[in-house]
Write a structure and sequence with these properties.
Order of helices and strands: HHHHHHHHHH
Largest sheet: none
Number of helices: 10
Helix content: over 70%
Radius of gyration: 40 Å
Number of domains: 1
Low-confidence stretches: 238-274
Length: 274
């Protein structure tokens, strides 16, 4: 269990959703407390959680820019390709605009231009979620995905759209309702990220085991081949030594035979002289 929690905690998206859930909880607490001092404390905590999330998604626009390009180029021409590309492109524009407003969020600047830019960025986010709702509806009518996945996506979009909608004044809801909707969407998204992270960790472990097994088999094969080469070299060496020793023995035998022949011949010659 600790390993699974560690896998989840090491994922940037999981950390962002966890902080988002905490932000939703303190937002609910700030909206339900009757104490002005407590409300100020909860709102301060909410601002810190929101700021920490901004750091994690500072360059998120790059991911959605690449996703929009991949969706447009890899998918066949269809209405779904248009909706999916528009969704990713709008999210890329939103995160790109929000990136420049980080100094206002940090309290370094109080630029009215950046405040207006943040407002327009939230409007773009609203359009992105609206496009996502259209995409989910299209998938439901086309039956491109499972009903459970479509239901989760629909709940996520319906909850998330309240955040920018209330911030820009297009959806009149209070902060407690927004906090509840944000907590629900954060829990659902967190469950999806949990499943993805654990699957990736399991696949990584399987690949690691397969790699280690291949390495062991390769090492064993290398050792076997080296032993065979050593045995072959040893046998060749012994064969050469044996051939060399046999040659010396054969040579000695020939010398002895010649000597014996010469001796016999010498005896015969001496007998003739005699």
């Amino acid at each position: 269990m600790l390993a699974e929690v560690a896998n989840y905690a090491n994922d940037a998206a999981a950390v962002e959703k966890s902080l988002r859930l905490l932000q939703a909880f303190v937002q609910i607490a700030a909206g339900t407390t009757s104490s002005v001092t407590d409300a100020k404390t909860w709102n301060m905590a909410r601002g810190q959680f929101a700021l920490s999330r901004r750091y994690l998604r500072l360059f998120k626009w790059i991911d959605f820019s690449q996703a929009s390009t991949i969706t447009w180029t890899s998918s066949p021409p269809s209405s779904r390709r248009v909706l999916a590309t528009a969704k990713n492109m709008l999210l890329a524009i939103y995160f790109f605009m929000e990136m420049f407003c980080i100094t206002n969020a940090m309290g370094i600047t109080t630029s009215s231009f950046l405040t207006a830019l943040q407002h327009h960025a939230l409007q773009v986010w609203f359009f992105a979620i609206s496009t996502s709702l259209l995409l989910t509806t299209h998938d439901y009518l086309s039956q491109n995905m499972s009903s459970a996945t479509l239901a989760s996506d629909l709940v996520l979009d319906c909850c998330d759209i309240l955040i920018p909608g209330s911030a820009v004044g297009w959806i009149p809801v209070d902060s407690v309702t927004v906090g509840i909707a944000s907590s629900v969407s954060s829990i659902i998204a967190g469950q999806q990220i949990w499943a993805r992270v654990q699957k990736e960790a399991k696949d990584k472990e399987m690949r690691k085991r397969e790699k280690s097994m291949r390495k062991v088999r390769f090492d064993k094969g290398t050792k076997v081949s080296e032993e065979e080469e050593e045995e072959e070299e040893l046998s060749e060496k012994e064969g050469k030594e044996e051939e060399a020793s046999n040659g010396v023995v054969d040579g000695s035998v020939k010398v002895l035979a010649n000597a014996a022949g010469d001796g016999n011949g010498g005896v015969k010659k001496r007998s003739k002289k005699a």
